[in-house]
Amino acid sequence: QVQLVESGGGLVQAGGSLRLSCAASGRIFSINAMGWYRQAPGKQRELVATITGGGSTNYADSVKGRFTISRDNAKNTVYLQMNSLKPEDTAVYYCNAAGVTGRNIGGPYDYWGQGTQVTVSS
Q1: Of 46, 66, 70, 101, which one is least surrounded by beta carbons within 10 A?
Q2: For the sheet containing 67-72, what is the strand order?
Q3: Bridge-partner residues for 106, per DSSP?
Q4: Is residue 83 a contact partner of residue 13, using CB atoms and an 8 Å limit?
């Protein structure tokens, strides 16, 4: 009933930039918070950044000052602007929507996107 679709991943050289987008679709009434997580090979999935409907943000220490998360509540879309990318940023990035309510789903529930690959070459 609810689907998160990510876009914007790809291959970029170190120091470059990418902008990830994630749109939640479905009969959604509200989303409490959205965010980005990432998982590199052999590592656990980790938080990258989150943002609430009120605009409060939270960043992993490793991306502070380089990444910026933003949200368009009207479009149920979250963005991640990634600047000064480093090879260690290479991972599959997953979009998350937390506290989702909607028609026929009740809730709140959490949803995950399928992931988008970000590869940063040295």
Answers
A1: 46
A2: 3-7, 18-25, 77-82, 67-72
A3: 102
A4: no
CA 42, CA 64: separation in Å to the nearest integer? 23
Each of the 122 residues of the chain gets a pLDDT tens digit; together they read: 799 999 999 999 999 999 999 999 998 989 999 999 999 999 999 999 999 989 999 999 999 999 999 999 889 999 999 999 999 999 999 999 999 998 888 879 999 999 999 999 99
Phi (first) and psi of residue 74, to 5 degrees: -65, -30
Contact between residue 69 and residue 53 where contact means Cβ atoms under 8 Å apart = no
